[in-house]
Each structure stands twice: as C-alpha cells, then as structure tokens.
C-alpha cells in the first residue's frame, strides 16, 4: 500500500504482483516477493484511501500466532528467549524496515500477552532448528546411548505420532502457525496418581458449581425376542426402572 506517483494524493493497494495475490501476505512476504522480482513487473492495484487511513490511525499490521518448536537464547538487547511449545503473537514481520526479526508478544496463561520483544523470523528459525538437530546428532554420545536412541526413533517412526518425538521435533517446522480457539463446551478434567482422590474431593468441595463427579449407574440388560424379521429388542433398565431405552438389534443368525 502506498501513494501513487505524479504528486497526487491517491493511495493504492497492491492486489497482485505478476498474477500472484499478495493481499493476505505479511509485510515481510510482500517485500521479499518484490525484491526477488526480475524483468518486467505487472502490478494490479486499487484505490484504498480509507483502508490506508485506518491502518495509520489504528497502527494495524501483521497479526498471527505461531508455536515455537525450537530453543533460542537472546543474543542482543530486546530479543526474547524461546522454548519449545511457547506461543507468540507476531505483530510486525518487518521490524524497523529490516528483514531478520519479528516483533512479537509472548502469550502466557489464558492467552494473555505477557512480554514484548524480537524473535527470529521464519528463515532464521529454520536455520537455528536445523543447527540444534545436527548438534543433538553429534552429541549422541557412546555407542550404547546411540543404540537406545535408534530404538526410540524406530518406535516413534512406527507409531506415526509426531508428539512422540520429545527430542528432535523434526516433524514440525520451527514455527507452526496456530489460531486461538475457544471451545464452546467445558472440557473434562481427568485426574491420575496417588493424590487423585484427594484432589477430586477438594475440587468438588471448593468449586461445587464448576466441577462434578460422574456417578456410576447400574443397569440390567434384557433381551426380548420380537417376531419381526428375526430381530430382537434390547431393554436397558436403570435404577428402579427410572429409564428404559429400547434399541432394535438385528439377529446375527438371520
């Protein structure tokens, strides 16, 4: 988005560059695409005075969320430390007009923005993640350690579950684009371990309106034959016959 040449006050929004739609590109992606162009360039633009004024007044820019799958310690002032699993909201992919770093907010509990600073951009992040992976391979240790490491990798490969890789995280990019979602239902809480009973009773006592414990309901199962195309009727009776549910079950011998 910028002003058109010729001294007039028109503001133009770049819609396509050589036939490629760039309306949803980040600032960094748009600049990289323009810099890499060679030869004739064809731009599709449209007037966007109102959109430009809104961006200037509200300071709108990039806004998307990423989850980090690598570690990074700050090397200069203003940088944030990164740990695998942390989520950041990126607000500027072209900070101070230069490539290489993103301005972002670290998200804490309840998706609150708790810290603002710079993180490596996607290209640098992939380089750092690759270096860490090579370093882990080089530091595999003794042949005994390497043997067990290979067994773990083989097990993870058979399982096909990327979350079973606590070391390499190689099945994910350095930054995974994510979106914040708020479920429209209350998620269940499952407690395990020796203190599960104590914790459950504490939650039920202190937060009776928020937590509830499922109750065991005993029921009897009775098979009643019916004379319709060899089918049977299953009757489920709850306590004191308070609820009866009938399900039509096809006879397996028919």
From TrEMBL:
Domain of life: Eukaryota
GO MF: cell adhesion molecule binding
Domain SH3: 61-129
Basic residues compositional bias, start-end: 147-156
GO biological process, one term: cell-cell adhesion
Keywords of the record: SH3 domain
Any single Gene Ontology cellular-component annotation: plasma membrane
Pfam families noted in UniProt: SH3_2 (PF07653)
Record region (Disordered): 130-166
Protein name in UniProt: SH3 domain-containing protein
